[in-house]
Amino acid sequence: MNDRIAQLNEKIEPYRQQIIHHPLYHRIKSIDDLKIFMQYHVYAVWDFMSLLKSLQNQLTCTTIPWYPKGDANTRFLINEIVVGEESDVDEQGNRISHFELYLSAMNQCGANTSIINALLLQLHENPDVNKALTNVQLPAAARAFVSNTFDVIATDKAHIQAAVFTFGREDLIPNMFMKLVEDIQQSFPESVSTFKYYLERHIEVDGGHHSHLALAMTAHLCGTEPSLWDEAEAAVITALEKRIQLWDGALEAMEN
Question: What value, to the nearest 5°, has the Cα angle with vertex 102 and ends 149 and 104?
Answer without folding.
Answer: 145
